[in-house]
Amino acid sequence: MLVDCHSHLWSYPGHLSDEFVAEANARSRGHALDLDIPPEKHWQAMQGVDKVIVFGLRAFHSGLYVPNEFIAGYVAAHPGKVIGFGAVDPTTDPIDETLEDIVRLGLRGVKLGPIYQNIHPTDPRMLRVYAFCQSHKLPIMIHQGTTFVRTGPLKYALPILLEDVAVEFPELRMVIAHLGHPWIAETLVLIRKHPHLYSDISALHYRPWQFYNALITAKEYGVLDKILFGSDFPFTTPEASIDGLRNINHIAEGTNLPRLTSDEIERLIYSPTLACLGLEDA
Ligand SMILES: [Zn+2]
Questions:
Q1: What whole-number distance in Å separates Cα of residue 252 and Cα of residue 222?
Q2: How far apart are CA 55 and CA 8, in angstroms?
Q3: Of the candidates 274, 279, 148, 265, which has an alpha carbon nearest to the alpha carbon of residue 205?
Q4: What's the CA angle centered on 185, arms 180 and 187, to 5 degrees?
Q5: Ligand 1 centre distance from Cα of residue 179 (Å)
Q6: What span, in angstroms and rounded, lies between the C-alpha atoms of 192 and 52?
Q7: The CATH fold of domain 3-276
Q8: From 11, 22, 264, 276, which residue has the greatest number of CB atoms within 10 Å?
Q9: 90 vs 53, 64, 152, CA distance in Å?
């Protein structure tokens, strides 16, 4: 089964600030981004996958305000294929109420982004979110890595900061988005140690040297099976992400550099995402 574990849905204008969109475009590698993603556009882009996890983000510090109802409405229209995650901004949202809402709306996980939300990953408000998610079996997709947003504090973005969380909440299933780039080695040693920590390969293939090194390092640490397939749509697509994976050895052509086998590549594309996240019934 092909599962895209990382995709976004939001309206612009409406859910994103002008500053966020301007900064995204300024760092978009030379092409204008279309960041208005209404449900029809997301649905169209996901024709090639069997299941997709979709979320917005709530981060008032960075100008992201996607209502959980918006995600839930889309999921309700495509219940067999689309799995929705809710979002909570622990700095501004009423935490317990928002988390209860996420459950009531039938959303199956929670998206967090400390760098966007301007909060340390072990802030007491974050601990309340982890505790709720662990007890309600809600997996967390956490953006623990860098961003283009100028006001996002990098000091909150280091993957290693999640070690204390994994120790305190050992049953909490958590995906560190984008291999925690550029701190990929930190992410790999974390997911190697902690049984319920995973990562995803979304939004990495367009930096081919980093992508190649990341996955060869993951292979050497023996953690390829803890890396889930995802695109980060609308920043890229599932098709481009699959092409990027299947082309990964291109960089090693004519050299003795190590390679991924085609079996390893296909296992990354068809990663057992739902089983890893305890979402087999979704
Ligand atoms: Zn993303």
A1: 20
A2: 5
A3: 265
A4: 40
A5: 12
A6: 25
A7: TIM Barrel (3.20.20)
A8: 276
A9: 22, 13, 15
Q: How far is the CA of 35 from the centre of ligand 1 (A)?
A: 12
Question: How much distance in Å is there from the Cα of 249 to the middle of ligand 1?
Answer: 25
pLDDT tens, per residue, the chain with 282 residues: 999 999 999 999 999 999 999 999 888 777 778 889 999 999 999 999 999 999 999 999 999 999 999 999 999 999 999 999 999 999 999 999 999 999 999 999 999 999 999 999 999 999 999 999 999 999 999 999 999 999 999 999 999 999 999 999 999 999 999 999 999 999 999 999 999 999 999 999 999 999 999 999 999 999 999 999 999 999 999 999 999 999 999 999 999 999 999 999 999 999 999 999 999 999
**For ion ligand 1, residues whose CB falls within 5 Å:** 232
Burial degree of 247 (CB within 10 A; 0-12, 13-18, 19+): middle
Cα(26)–Cα(109) distance, integer angstroms? 31
CA of 168 to the centre of ligand 1 (A): 26
Q: What's the rounded Cα separation, in Å, for the pair 278 and 138?
A: 8
Listed by start position, the domains of the chain span: 3-276
